[in-house]
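Example 9 (inverse folding). The structure is encoded as follows.
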């Protein structure tokens, strides 16, 4: 969301008229319902539209992806035409993929033989 900018600022010990309050209320409504839009239901807040996070985002529990394009996209260190996509097929049961507590390269079916042949075991 863009920064909130209000039409009128108020100073202590001055008279505030209704038109100033109405203008500021309109500014706040426009800001809150702009893109992205926010809505709340119970303890859930929904963001509709594009939300750009330019700093660290911390999630304290699960991250749930839903919709027709369920994937993580890594742009890399510079914006260009190439990205890395991580996606899963439509599951027929709950699945868990666990990465080991170790450093290294994850072998894929397409490159497993080259990773094995270039490993320290040869």
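The amino acid assigned to each position is listed next.
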């Amino acid at each position: 969301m863009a920064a909130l900018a209000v039409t009128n600022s108020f100073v202590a010990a001055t008279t505030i008229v209704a038109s100033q309050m109405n203008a500021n209320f309109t500014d706040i409504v426009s800001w809150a319902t702009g893109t992205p839009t926010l809505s709340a239901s119970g303890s859930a807040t929904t963001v509709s539209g594009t939300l750009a996070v330019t700093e660290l985002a911390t999630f304290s529990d699960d991250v749930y992806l839903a919709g027709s394009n369920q994937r993580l996209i890594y742009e890399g260190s510079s914006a260009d035409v190439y990205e890395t996509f991580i996606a899963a097929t439509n599951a027929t049961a709950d699945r868990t993929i666990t990465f080991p507590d170790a450093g290294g390269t994850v072998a894929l079916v397409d490159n497993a033989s080259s990773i094995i042949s270039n490993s320290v075991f040869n």
